[in-house]
């Protein structure tokens, strides 16, 4: 008796996975997509930044200027403490760059599903902020040791902006490089049509690699 064929995994990417993919070149793209596919098949994956994000959101919500960030280093599991110690200074600097704590509030964002051709990409900001002058920003955090490349910044901000009506209406997308405390905004000379064509091509290649990795 033959074993039933396994159901093929539909190509799918998170915003983080897709922007890391577009950052790669040559054979490393195929290796990366193969790794994503295996991770999806095994349903593995752990986010070590969960408590960090919760502390940062608490500092914004309660206007505490960084006390929750400082405190979370002492309560996180010892194996993650060096990571958190490396992240806190930059995150605190970014928090202070927003201005007076009382002038900024936490805003609720929603996830959205973007379709790039036939590739679904999950758009999932970490949270939103609302300023006292009415401006709103949808925030995506970059935790890597290396700064985000120009390509990954453009891809992240474009895809967030593309679905901002669902994510946080009338907000500006912002990518925050946590370790360096730097906020990246869409360049004023960005050409959305060109970015869209580029990302559509990348998505088609992603799907092709995903299928051949089966």
- The overall pLDDT average reads 93
What's the total number of strands? Answer: 8
Which oligomerization state do the chains in this entry correspond to?
single chain
Euclidean distance between termini CA atoms: 23 Å
Q: What order do the helices and strands follow?
A: EHHHHHEEEEEHHEEH
Which percent range fits the helix content?
Answer: 40-55%
User: Shape from CA axes?
Assistant: globular
User: Based on helices, strands and strand pairing, what is the structural class?
Assistant: alpha/beta
Number of domains: 1
Tally of alpha and pi helices: 8
Tell me what portion of residues adopts beta-strand conformation.
Answer: 15-25%
Q: Poorly predicted ranges (pLDDT <50, ≥5 residues)?
A: 1-7
Q: If you compute it from the alpha carbons, what radius of gyration comes out, rounded to the nearest whole angstrom?
A: 19 Å
Characterize the largest beta sheet: strand count, sense, and whether it forms a barrel. 5 strands, mixed
Query: Which strand order spans the largest sheet, edge to edge or round the barrel?
Result: 2-5-6-7-8
Your description of this structure?
Helix 1 runs antiparallel to helix 6, helix 3 (50-61) packs parallel to helix 5 and helix 4 (67-75) runs antiparallel to helix 5 (81-97). The model is unreliable at 1-7 (pLDDT under 50). The protein has helices at residues 15-22, 27-42, 50-61, 67-75, 81-97, 150-162, 164-167, 192-212, and strands spanning 13-14, 104-107, 112-116, 119-123, 127-131, 136-142, 172-177, 182-184. The strands form two sheets. It has a five-stranded mixed sheet, sandwiched between helices. Strands 1-4-3 form a three-stranded mixed sheet. The protein has one domain (13-213). Strand 3 and strand 4 (119-123) form a beta hairpin. The longest helix is centred in the C-terminal third of the chain and has 21 residues, at 192-212. The chain contains eight helices and eight strands; from the N terminus they run βαααααβββββααββα. With 214 residues, the protein is of the alpha/beta class. The protein is globular, with a radius of gyration of 19 Å.
């Amino acid at each position: 008796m033959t074993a039933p064929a396994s159901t093929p995994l539909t190509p799918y990417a998170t915003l983080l996975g897709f922007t890391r993919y577009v950052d790669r070149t040559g054979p490393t793209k195929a290796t990366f997509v193969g790794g994503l596919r295996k991770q999806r098949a095994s349903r593995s994956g752990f986010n070590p930044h969960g408590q960090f994000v919760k502390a940062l959101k608490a500092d914004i919500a309660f206007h505490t200027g960084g006390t929750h960030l400082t405190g979370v280093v002492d309560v996180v599991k010892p194996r993650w403490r060096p990571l958190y110690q490396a992240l806190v200074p930059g995150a605190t600097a970014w928090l202070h760059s927003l201005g007076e704590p009382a002038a900024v509030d936490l805003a609720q964002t929603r996830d959205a599903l973007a379709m790039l051709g036939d590739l679904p990409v999950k758009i999932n900001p970490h949270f939103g902020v609302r300023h006292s002058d009415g401006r709103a920003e949808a925030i995506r955090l970059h935790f890597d040791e290396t700064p985000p490349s120009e390509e990954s910044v453009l891809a992240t901000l474009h895809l967030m902006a593309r679905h901002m009506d669902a994510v946080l209406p009338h907000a500006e997308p912002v990518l925050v490089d946590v370790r360096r405390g730097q906020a990246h905004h869409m360049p004023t000379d960005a050409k959305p049509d060109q970015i869209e064509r580029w990302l559509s091509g990348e998505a088609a290649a992603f799907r092709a690699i995903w299928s051949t990795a089966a």
